[in-house]
Specification:
- This protein has three helices and 16 strands.
- With 261 residues, it is mainly beta.
- It has one domain.
Length: 261
């Protein structure tokens, strides 16, 4: 396993992308510092005991000033997690659309959710109990909405950057706008073969807000934190992610999958 393959593959959930740096936030969204390029990587999803749950792919394709990013995980029992994100990279990094599909026994509330930033619409197909319920809602979707591009942001934060908050539409049959508070937790070391590298660890907390945010921890409904490790260097890159794939889900681990012959 070499570092180049590790760098390419471990950008996931996704929202994920390489070579795209952001500097702060303002009313016009997230400022772009470097343009993203093409990428294809192979991913593996494990539970906290180390058991393999799913294998996956990441593909990233530029179309002019736009990037199409697709992350998919195929579970052994046929369950599927697939997220396709389109975002722009002009002066700012901005979400255009995000399409999330989760179905199968690994997902207690299977769904098909599309966010269309330009039309300010969220289309939802709930797939629970063998029934399909479809609806479209008008929502106030802010310019710095992080759905699909969360890890593009995290992998490119400056190591000494102060804590930031970004809006995120928590996917469910009744989507809710929350805030994700992102803060660095210091350096850790990882190795590729025997060679050591440094990574900055980030913690992402879900702030639900309002009365629900106060009650959630009391009744065990506070979403688990997400932890992200970002390699240091000229092109910071996500090298590990620990966190849930769905609301109130268990903490899973995303890492590189090595080809086997």
């Amino acid at each position: 396993m070499n570092y180049a393959r590790l760098k390419t593959a471990l950008v996931a959930m996704a929202l994920l992308s390489s070579h795209c740096l952001l500097q702060g936030q303002d009313q016009n969204g997230l400022k772009l510092r470097h343009r993203a390029g093409s990428a294809h990587g192979f991913l593996i999803l494990r539970d906290q005991a180390g058991a393999t749950l799913a294998s996956g792919d990441l593909t990233q394709i530029p179309y002019g000033d736009r990037i199409k990013l697709r992350v998919v995980f195929h579970f052994r029992d046929g369950s599927l997690h697939e997220e396709t994100t389109v975002y722009s990279q002009r002066r700012d990094l901005r979400l255009i659309s995000d399409h999330l599909v989760q179905r199968g026994s690994f997902f207690p509330n299977p769904c098909d959710i599309t966010i269309d930033k330009r039309s300010q619409q969220v289309s939802i197909r709930a797939l629970s109990n063998g029934k399909e319920v479809a609806k479209t809602e008008q929502m106030d979707l802010p310019d710095d909405l992080a759905n699909g591009i969360l890890f593009v942001l995290v992998e490119n934060l400056q190591p000494n950057a102060p804590k930031i908050e970004v809006p995120y539409l928590a996917p469910s049959a009744k989507p809710r706008m929350v805030k994700l508070a992102i803060a660095s937790e210091g350096e850790e070391q990882f190795k590729v073969s025997a060679r050591p590298y440094k990574a900055m660890k980030y913690d992402i907390k879900v702030n639900i807000g309002g009365v629900a945010g106060v009650v959630a921890p009391m009744i065990g409904k506070q979403p688990a934190d997400i932890h992200v490790w970002v390699s240091e260097g000229a092109v910071p890159t996500v090298v590990r992610i620990d966190g849930p794939l769905y609301t109130e889900g268990p903490v899973w681990n995303i890492e590189l999958a090595s080809p086997v012959w």
